[in-house]
Amino acid sequence: MDKNITKIFAALLGIVGAMSIPASVSAQQPASGNKLSHARAARETARPAAQAATAEAAETPAATTYVYTLVGYPGTLNTLGVGINPGAIQQNNEAPAVNVVGAEFFPDGLSQTGFFAHVSQTDGVTENYRLVNDAQVPTPQQTYSINDLGQIVGDYIDANGLFHSYMLDCGKFTVFNVPFAGATGTYSPAINNSGEIVGSWNDSAGNSHSYTLIAGKFQSFDVPGASQSQLYYGINSAGEIVGSYADAAGNLHGFLRQGKTYTTLNFPGATLTEVSGINDAGVIVGGYCPTAACVETGQGELGFVYNKGVYTTFAFPAEFAVGLASINNEGVIMGNYVDAADLVYTFLATPQQ
Fold it and tell me: 258 in a domain, yes or no?
């Protein structure tokens, strides 16, 4: 995997926009600059491929309407949301709120650290932010995932350019690395409400693999047909895992892992599919490229929701690229989009009953 800092936001996380944006968009915050780079996976020799199921259903028009809230860390050039908590948290009798984690960029446009945002809709929209930064380790740092207990997982790059992962729990940072022989990096973790973690690791040859950390035990896994694992995973309360992988030709696909069963997720007709989020109802979110040009530049990438065998496109009209990152159990979607001025926006899309 490329050790360049752009790894941390290498794939434009899928974004959700409805087929048309409602007129009311709530609480716009300062947006960020610095266009996301679009990842093409590195590839080596293919691993032996096992048979994987393929899920491809007809695309149908979006029927759900959403109210949108923009999320941006104050004073930064770029805010990239990556994960939201699975449930709707209530504090002090407030309306359901959402916790968002991701990366924010310093004014130089390169340096970054993690952030946490608490977004409440009590008496209008209120957004409270704080940095998530372990002062004992170097930057860049990034938060990837948060559960309903407030446990946050993320990663950082050390002085040698190697990735390490961490958990933040009750104010304490704990660094962890896979114990596998020849491992040279541990990164891109996601966590569920049981504390089960999924993420990526690199071997000494530069190949990327996936791992789980459950009850203190690490296990490595490779998706059948994968040449390289990709960034960004989701894991729900049942332990169902979603993510993306590159095949031997470098083409990107999504996957769903249920126990030891793998299902390949390809948006119908797409040239690239990325998957990054799943909720407890099994609703999956991600992004896709409709053209070969989109694979090369990222322009024209669209978000999607996959529910009960049906793919539904979500798009912000006239934006450079959109992608969907995460979905909670209330159906709230978090995503990101890049506009024509190369500004990156994170948003929440709250479904209306």
Answer: no
Both tokens assigned to 13:
């996380």
> Which tokens is 191 given?
């966590």
Answer yes or no: are the C-beta atoms of 25 and 314 closer than 8 Å.
no
Residues 6+ apart with CB under 8 A from 179: 218
Average pLDDT, the chain: 80
Selection from 236, 239, 248 nearest residue 278 by Cα = 236
User: Quick check: is 12 in a domain?
Assistant: yes
Determine how β-strand 217-221 pairs with β-strand 66-71: unpaired
Domain that holds residue 111: 5-250+263-351
Name the DSSP class of 8. G
Q: How many CB atoms lie within 10 A of CB 203?
A: 16
Q: What percent of the chain has pLDDT over 90?
A: 60
Query: What is the rounded distance in angstroms from the CA atom of residue 17 to the CA atom of residue 347?
Result: 9
> Quick check: 208 and 200 in contact, CB under 8 A?
yes
Full-model pTM: 0.82
Question: Would you say residue 76 lies in a domain?
Answer: yes
